[in-house]
Structures are given as C-alpha cells and as structure tokens.
Amino acid sequence: MADTLIVLPTYNEIDNLEIIVGRIRQAVPQADILIVDDSSPDGTGELAKTLSLGDPGITVLHRLTKDGLGGAYRAGFALASERGYSYVVEIDADGSHDPGSLPEMIALAKAGADLVIGSRWVPGGEVRNWPWLRQLISRSGNVYSRAVLGSKIRDLTSGFRVIRTSTLNSTRLASISSQGYCFQVELAWRLEQAGAIVAEHPIVFVERTLGRSKMHSGIVLEALWRVTLWGIAQKIPRRE
Ligand SMILES: Nc1nc2c(ncn2[C@@H]2O[C@H](COP(=O)(O)OP(=O)(O)OP(=O)(O)O)[C@@H](O)[C@H]2O)c(=O)[nH]1
Ligand SMILES: [Mg+2]
Q1: In whole angstroms, how far apart are CA 152 and each of 89, 145, 172, 189?
Q2: How much distance in Å is there from the Cα of 232 to the middle of ligand 2?
Q3: Which of the four pLDDT bands, split at 50, 70 and 90, describes residue 126?
Q4: Around ion ligand 2, which residues have CB less than 5 A away?
Q5: What is the CATH number of the domain that holds 73?
Q6: Does the residue 240 lie in any domain?
Q7: 215 CB under 6 A from ligand 1?
Q8: Range of the domain at 71
C-alpha cells in the first residue's frame, strides 16, 4: 500500500482537475490521491468520479456543502489517518503548485521533518504572475502573522505541504476551527507550537491560468482577526 495520500480539494475546478491529476501521477506515481469536492456546480465531482473509476489509486470524497478549504482538509486528513497513510500532502488543484517539487518535499519528511512547507518566501522561492496587491497581501500577512504569533515560519499561508500523519493526530485536528486560508496559518502554527520539526522548501508558485479564484476579502479578514486574537490570547498568562 502507498504510504502517502495527496489530498486535492476542489471547488469548480473542471478545467484544471484532469491536468493536475495527470501531473501528480507523473511526479509521484507511488502516492494515492484523494479528491475532496464540495458538490461543485460545474461538475468537478462527476469528473473526479470518472477519474477514480479508471485509476485504483484515486478516491473521491463528495461533500454536500461548500464549507471552505479548512473543512475539506479536516475531512481529508481524517480519512488519511483512518486508512493508515504515514504522510499526507496538501496541494491546490489550480496548477499553482508544481507536483514536480513533491519528491523532494516527501524526501524531507522521510528524513525527519514533521511538516514540510512549499515556501514562496524563502531564498529560491518565487511567485509568478501575481498582481502587486496580491503579493503585498501575502507578504504583509506573513510578516504580521510571524510577528504576532512569534512563529519562525516564512510562508505560513502556503497551501503546498507534506505532513506526517501521526503529528496531525496529536494536534487535536477538530479544535482547528478556521475555514478559509487562515486554516493554513492555524495548522502550521499549532504544529510548530506542539514541537513539530518544520522544514521550508523553496517553490515557484504560478498563478492559475484556468478557472476562477475563490479568494475574497472575507478570507483575508478572517485571517486578520483570528491571528490577532490568537496573538492576544498568547500574551495573557494562563491560570493553572
Ligand atoms: N473542497 C473545497 N475546495 C475548495 C474550497 N475553496 C477553495 N477550494 C480549493 O482550494 C484550492 C485553492 O483555492 P484557490 O481558489 O486557488 O485559492 P488561492 O490559490 O488562494 O487563490 P488564487 O491564487 O487566486 O487562485 C483550489 O484547489 C480550490 O478548488 C472549498 O470550499 N471546498
Ligand atoms: Mg490558487
């Protein structure tokens, strides 16, 4: 049995799904893939089902309602752990993350890292085709979160990761409540706090060319208020 499960969350990714699945299959043929689709109105779920019928390494989790990236990953992680995979991968379906980086990232996890982050903001990392405002939001969001949370991680918001499944079990996944991309910040920070060994691997992030972004101001605001609240909570001494 494969030791790695690649969790691929999808919402309206009909133009991207087959391409990304093919690229993953080529880069890491030994890994299994779990597509987590939230009843995409564009038919992504049906396409996922068709792909899974032709490939025993692909399974699909069809969820009835769209409840954000955080919910999709929580469900995917639970399945990874139930099915006994040692490593779980987070990757966007829109082609922004190159599966070609996965062999190196998985090797870092196998060499001892509990969390390997595909990072845009370490030397060698890069972002292509992002408007300046998007770059500014990502860069300043990371600087702010690092400072407020006291984290050493350079790319807290990256959605391209390899995680040791046993590390996830011990962080009480259900208590990670963020919905949008803030989920990525919360997960990385909680793992770091729990003593996980974190490695950042430089990646070239390429903005999607097909389909539409699900990014909106509410997602940025969720991250801003949550990170601020966690930072404040951290500063208040706890009564024993
Ligand atoms: N299952 C599920 N997947 C989602 C949901 N929201 C986003 N996704 C997926 O999560 C991944 C990241 O979403 P994107 O829209 O690309 O967001 P982003 O990468 O931050 O934004 P862009 O750079 O503008 O594309 C994609 O594979 C989406 O299809 C959701 O509510 N449920
Ligand atoms: Mg994207």
Answers
A1: 21, 10, 22, 9
A2: 30
A3: very high
A4: 92, 94, 96, 208
A5: 3.90.550.10
A6: no
A7: yes
A8: 4-235
